[in-house]
Amino acid sequence: MDYRDSTEQQAWRGEVRAFLEAEAPGEYRVMRRPAVDSYGRGDELFQTWRNRVARRGWLASHWPKEYGGAGMSVMEQFVLKEEFALSGCAHPGGRGVEMVGPTIILHATDEQRDELLPPILSGEHIYCQGFSEPGAGSDLAAVQLRAVRDGDEYVLNGQKIWTSNALSCNWIFLLARTDPDAPKHKGISYFVMPMDVPGVTVRPIIDMVGGNELCETFYEDVRVPASYRIGEENRGWYIAMTTLDFERSGIAGAVALQQRMIRLAPTLKGRLTDERRALFADLYLSSEVARQMAYHVASLQDRGQVPNYEASMVKLFSSELTRRFDTAMVSFFGLQGQLYAGSNGYDVDEGRVARALSGSIPTTIAGGTSEVQRGIIAGRGLGLPRG
Q1: Which of the chain's termini has less CB crowding within 10 Å, N or C?
Q2: CA distance 167 to 215
Q3: How many CA atoms lie within 13 A of 100 on its CB side?
Q4: Pure H helices in the chain
């Protein structure tokens, strides 16, 4: 594996870096989430930033050009994400660009692509994800939200939970059970739909940081056009498990964690005992390991291979490292590390240390729990039998 940029990659990196230095809003050049929701609905600054990225054609870097994307190679995507993370700027694509769009491109009809893809690129349709339910988390195939065909529509009844950003998104992609008598993986269909239709209720779940991004959504006789079912009926599980082959190394998260360490290091001077200094050094070295693991995944894709357990290794290692780091930071700063912003100047890094600890708890759950990742690594990576 060659860690050096090729001549073309070096030039591309320079182009991305120059754009970020010239165009990225100063408010976004800090390693934190925007003050508003992460998809920027109603946030003029975020929409301005989104439009600047879109004008460059970099919003949907992994989409084919014929659908409005950039058609970038794996390494071009990797460099783009790495430079965005190094600059402290979140890429403004969101779930519509990263998840729904590729699914529509791969599985939808031409008519559905013509209707559904342009609003994603323009930012008109901002998507949340309706997969998890109170009884279907890690066992996602246990979804019970019912969708019953009624002429040219489906009627939905049931509940979803952990529907992140449901209050600020105006569309949702979800899984619903269309055949309750089929084996659980084979009776599910994949739908997209607007959130403002009659019968949809959204309730926020206030998290430990005081945020309302986590939500539960309820569906009572919600009518969805059959034209909003993506792919074949009862094949939704398999559709949800596939997407276009785009860069998924996790480099942005690895770099963001490393940048947080660099930013906090001067504040820690004078606070570290020899033991804590050794721990901080170990955490920083671990962040570099996470970054190198991300490089490895990208290199596999660049050679035409499909990372499987390798991507799970990155997710597992990085998410658990984030928890270790955030726990250590609060310990290093003591009571000050537990204060949020506005604590008469006693808080650390504008309260980000305290917020990060609370906010990092879901990192080992969202996107596949650590237990699930270990199962993938054990079975697909080490060839171990199921217990």
Answers
A1: C
A2: 8
A3: 32
A4: 7-23, 44-55, 74-87, 94-95, 101-107, 110-122, 236-240, 251-268, 274-302, 309-333, 352-359, 370-376
Q: Are strands 200-204 and 153-161 parallel, antiparallel or unpaired?
A: unpaired
Single-letter amino acid, residue 15? E
Going 305 to 189 to 61 to 215, the CA torsion angle's sign is negative
Q: Which residue ranges form the domains of the chain, and what is each CATH number?
A: 7-92 (1.10.540.10), 127-240 (2.40.110.10), 251-381 (1.20.140.10)
Band of the pLDDT at 199, cuts 50, 70, 90?
A: very high
Least confident of 199-208, 241-250, 309-318: 241-250
Given the residues 82, 83, 213, 247, the one annotated as active site: 247
State pTM to two decimals. 0.85
Is the pLDDT score of 237 beyond 60? yes
**pLDDT tens for residues 69-90?**
999 998 999 999 999 999 988 8
What is the residue whose two structure tokens read 């990208």? 298
